[in-house]
Amino acid sequence: MGPKAKKSGRKKRKITKAERLKQLQEEEERRQREEEEARVKYEKEEMERLEIQRIEKEKWHQLEAKDLERRNEELEELYLLEGCFPEAEKLKRDTRLLSQWKHYIQCDGSPDPSISPEINTFISLWKEETNETLEEVIAKSKLVLNLIDKLKLILLETPPYDLEDKNIIQYQGSILELQELLHLKFNIATEILLRQASTLADLDSGNMEKVIQDENVTLYVWANLKKNPRYKSVRFSETQIGFEIPRILATSDIALRLLHTHYDHVTPLCPVPTSLQEHTATVTHFVKDEVKNEEAAISKELQEEGKQRENESSSVQEEETKFEEQGDSEVQMSFVQEEPEATKFELEMKLLSETVLSDNEVDLCQFTTLGGVYHLDILELPPQCKPMKGWMIVEILKEGLQKYIYPPETTEDVETENAFPPIEVTLEVQENVIFFEDPVVARWDAEGKHWQTDGISNVSYKSEERLITFSLETFGPVTLIQDSHINMPFQSWELRPLDVNKVLLTVTTVFTEIQIQIKENLCMLASIKLNNKKHSSILEGKWMTPISFICALKEAGLNIFPSGHSHFYVVINYKDPLVEMKAYRQLALLSSAFAFGWSKWNTVCNSKKVIVKV
Residue ranges of the IC97/Casc1 N-terminal domain (predicted)? Predict the structure, then answer.
């Protein structure tokens, strides 16, 4: 065997205690050096951060001071601009006086309804006119309706401080007298027509039928001359409009009249001004006091500015972060009312709760009559005129045209219990009125002086043919009603400028989208969409004053205008009326330059704040 190989390598030398202490000392020095460098770096960064924060704070304070100076200047300009509102009221007053002067110089023979002697003379002279035919009454009714509309506009457009109580009583009295006289004239003319029923009888049926259509009135008259018990279905001029009468009426000397007035002269007049006028009066009353209070608030705010800077800064930063997340810029306008509205709101709630409606009575604060009134009458056939030796002899009853009572008050002579069944009626809904849901039929209660929904059964509505059929226990005035707040609350709204003093207002609801053009003191319906389809209306393209425009839209079924009681029927975030009016005024001042829209944040803020999107 060969010799064994020697082991290579050296043994590791052990670290001495002195060397280990030296190593630990070096590590400790390095750690302290790193900590010192980190401390110096942190202090330097902190100083730089504090310096940047100081510079930003100085810039913010400079911006606040500059903004305060600018706001003072803008408030002075705002006071100057708000000075135009009293000027506008003065201009409206001058316009009303000018309209009276224009009417005076026209000399067209029509009376000025605001002047009591003139309208009383007109009414007295018309009462003296006798033997007017239906055609003559309908022609005269255009002037009468025009006078009534003028009086209603005076009551709506004139501010309360320019309208005395005696004038209100006078105008409403003239309206009621004209309405009653017009309906009386229709009754007299109907009686004259029915006296000649035998000479106007149809050759086929032997009964008389008369149809007169006008822009304001549609009249259907049928006289039962033959008294054929088999003739129970009455239809006018080959239409589906008419009645299904029972046997007892088919064998009686009666006449049926359907007088469809496209206006409503049955519903009582509102005893108080509308909410629009109330808001205008409230704001006008407080304009001068508001300016003084704003000036005092500004001087007080200047004194407290130093104390509030930090709070305002944090508040602005929070709002900016919130609006950046939403992606839209929103402006919050906060107004504080001098007098608390809580007391007024509680009083309104108490008054509403104390208002007790009878069973089936229509609440006119919640519902609106649409399409006019259908006057359904069963009339006793007057004595017919008889020719004799070239003369026409007719017996004229002293009591005039009499209604046939159906069902009669006493039914002792009638054997069967169902001898007086409800009468089936088929009516045509006015084509210029929009119903977003099936209309509800209501009848007039002459004793209670209100509309109610009882005594009506078997209601069916054909929307395409615009025909409504129902059974009626007793005849009288009938109308169709719709919820006044069916288009409330809005889904969205937008106010977009088109030109100087010209904007486009778009309101989107559950059922429709309405676009309204506004320029200076006029409004026009631009377009309507129903179920995302364009709908034509006779109101499109017609410029009207605001009050006339609002009334026209309401009569067409397009009610998007809240009343003073709407917040009781619609679930909304109630706003202080004075705050709303202030916001409207500021929007009006900027509407030619900025577009405004609805904001979801407006529903979560309190009643003293209004938030819109700009």
Answer: 30-230
